[in-house]
Amino acid sequence: xxxxxxxxxxxxxxxxxxxxxxxxxxxxxxxxxxxxxxxxxxxxxxxxxxxxxxxxxxxxxxxxxxxxxxxxxxxxxxxxxxxxxxxxxxxxxxxxxxxxxxxxxxxxxxxxxxxxxxxxxxxxxxxxxxxxxxxxxxxxxxxxxxxxxxxxxxxxxxxxxxxxxxxxxxxxxxxxxxxxxxxxxxxxxxxxxxxxxxx
Amino acid sequence: xxxxxxxxxxxxxxxxxxxxxxxxxxxxxxxxxxxxxxxxxxxxxxxxxxxxxxxxxxxxxxxxxxxxxxxxxxxxxxxxxxxxxxxxxxxxxxxxxxxxxxxxxxxxxxxxxxxxxxxxxxxxxxxxxxxxxxxxxxxxxxxxxxxxxxxxxxxxxxxxxxxxxxxxxxxxxxxxxxxxxxxxxxxxxxxxxxxxxxx
Lengths: 199, 199
Ligand code: HEM
Ligand code: HEM
Known about the structure:
- Chains A, B: Residues 25-198 form the Globin-sensor domain.
- Chains A, B: GO terms for molecular function: heme binding; oxygen binding.
- Chains A, B: This is Protogloblin ApPgb.
- Chains A, B: It comes from Bradyrhizobium australiense.
- 2 copies of one chain form a homodimer.
- With 199 residues, chain A is mainly alpha-helical.
- Chain A has a single domain (25-193), classed as Orthogonal Bundle (Globin-like).
- Chain A has 9 helices and no strands.
- The first copy, chain A, has helices spanning 25-34, 39-53, 56-69, 71-74, 87-106, 111-124, 143-154, 158-161, 168-189.
- In chain A, helix 2 (39-53) crosses helix 5.
- The longest helix of chain A is centred in the last third of the chain and has 22 residues, at 168-189.
- The mean pLDDT of chain A is 96.
- Chains A and B meet through helix 1, helix 7 and helix 9 of A and helix 1, helix 7 and helix 9 of B.
- One protoporphyrin IX containing FE binds next to helix 5, helix 6 and helix 7 of chain B.
């Protein structure tokens, strides 16, 4: 299958190990329209890969900083009995999270990508959280935190997007494209959380 | 009750007619943190009221333009039998939608506001869609369109936020505050869509 080959454990993009997203390619095309996502946005996302590739660790640090600052978010990386962070788990997840920045920037929207979005949703949801890395943490990330966190992902990206000296107008376009992609992905990730027939 | 007094039909903000949001004020405080929403964001939202108040109709036109451009979105304003737009319904909704711009800008987060967020969610969901205005339209807005549409609301606002000549840095702060508020509200609106225990 034409999908990323990496050595990251648990990164099952493009493999038969991930569930199939129960929405079609045609429905995905429709969904992009609901978010005003156009081919131009894909172009600005792709432009961002080069800008972000060398800043992956810095971005992860910003986001993990927010998580560790807030008990209700940190809990998702902690053993609920001991309140100790499961750091093996957190590190395994971080590698895939870093890779996600690149995948988002590449904006290659084929069936393998769609299916992996569903898988990412399942891995936040009680269906599959902890399963991939045999974690010992809280077993479910609430829909509310997953959605609200979109802002924590995208807003702090602006200065990083500006780091390579692109004109403000271009940075702004990259930033908006990231917002659109983030909201579209979070929408797909919600699939396991939504009541039958309501998605 | 200390809530907006208007003559807009069906605008039941602050009245006993709306359902109570089943999350507490303390949980709302927590949720704001998941979105990095701070008191500074509230200040920039409030600054935007003056900028947007005289552009409400223009904004509504932009958003409705997107809806009417896309059959899968227009369907939500159409009679599913005849595919005719229920224009009495659409007009009644538009008045409340316009008022929502002002309410979002005011950022007054008390119990009445929280409860009305729940009500707005219910009015998109099959629980209450069509009920308020006795509409004859499709009975449910899909979670996916409601979430994805956040981008259609916020991204086109940027030039409107700039209309009163604020410096780009200030416009940018207003824009980010709108994004955060939008994602937080969409999160609350999802409550009726989410499986028991998953929210
Ligand atoms: C909308 C913003 C979010 C983004 C972009 C995001 C991104 C990701 C990605 C890319 C992965 C790895 C998926 C894979 O296995 O390849 C992941 C997993 C994970 N994320 Fe998130 N995430 C978000 C929200 C959150 C929040 C709010 C939390 C909690 C603080 C969180 C905690 C986790 C955990 C614990 C895992 C591992 C799940 C498991 O496999 O056991 N994420 N996230
Ligand atoms: C996230 C973006 C959205 C925002 C900010 C938004 C905002 C609003 C507001 C403020 C109301 C009036 C609530 C009240 O009664 O006071 C409303 C109702 C409504 N919205 Fe949305 N909306 C969004 C997404 C959508 C989408 C994607 C559609 C479909 C194209 C849609 C169609 C409607 C309809 C048909 C109603 C009337 C529901 C009823 O009471 O029967 N909205 N919306």
